[in-house]
Amino acid sequence: MSYDLIGLQGNLSTAFANTILDHLTNKVDYTNEDLYLALFLTACTDTTPGTEVSGSSYARVKIPGANPGGGQPYWASASSRASILAGGDVEFPVATLSGYTVTHIGFYNAASGGTYLGWGVLDTPRVIGVNERFSIPLGTLSISIPTTP
Fold first, then answer.
1. CA distance 50 to 105
2. Sequence-ordered alpha helix ranges (H) in 52-142
3. CA distance linking residue 44 with residue 37, whole number of Å
4. d(Cα 107, Cα 118) in Å, to the nearest integer?
5. Any residues with CB less than 8 A from the CB of 26 and at least 6 apart, and which?
6. For the chain, which residues score pLDDT lower than 50?
7. What is the rounded CA–CA span in Å between residue 108 and residue 3?
8. Short-list 132, 128, 117, CA closest to 30
9. What is the DSSP letter of 86?
10. Are the C-beta atoms of 49 and 105 separated by less than 8 Å?
11. Using the 8-state DSSP alphabet, how is residue 21 labeled?
12. What residues form DSSP beta bridges with 83?
């Protein structure tokens, strides 16, 4: 799978890809998990996350599930191009003590700790100064599975 965010390309972690394959071949049951977006200061790989932002009021952001609060679905239905689009903004807390430069994003199944699910690299690192926030606007975060044309 890949993650499409303006200027972003990435992969599933090896561990999560193995879980999906085991589920598809009926070796294990898979239960939908919470999904949290994390920000990184250094490169991620399929097996190892980079250095996650810390301090300055940073916290991972939970991506809503199917119907947050019983309202409209956050994720649109998968399209014919094996892609699903996030239906809302993703906003991290405002940096309060010091700024940082985001080079990668990652997905986890918990607000802290948890299982590393995948990553993406920004084409251009984003500098977040004091009193600024990292945000992903509506319509720019999608998850897709590459298919042959």
1. 9
2. none
3. 14
4. 5
5. none
6. 1-8, 66-68, 70-73
7. 14
8. 117
9. B
10. no
11. H
12. 144
Q: What is the pLDDT of residue 4?
A: 39
What is the value of pTM for the model shown? 0.78
Separation of alpha carbons 129 and 123, rounded Å = 19
What pLDDT is attached to residue 7? 41
C-alpha 24: how far from its chain's center? 22
Task: Retrieve residue 78's tokens.
Answer: 């998968």
Q: pLDDT value at position 60?
A: 95
Q: Is the dihedral of CA 146, 65, 43, 12 positive or negative?
A: negative
Structure tokens belonging to residue 112? 């802290």
Please classify residue 84 by burial: count the beta carbons closer than 10 Å to its beta carbon, then call 0-12 exposed, 13-18 middle and 19+ buried: middle
- Give the model confidence (pLDDT) of 39-77 as tens digits: 999 999 888 999 999 988 999 998 876 444 544 445 666
pLDDT score for 94? 92
- Strand-pairing partners, residue 11, are 119
Residue that the structure tokens 């303006």 belong to = 6
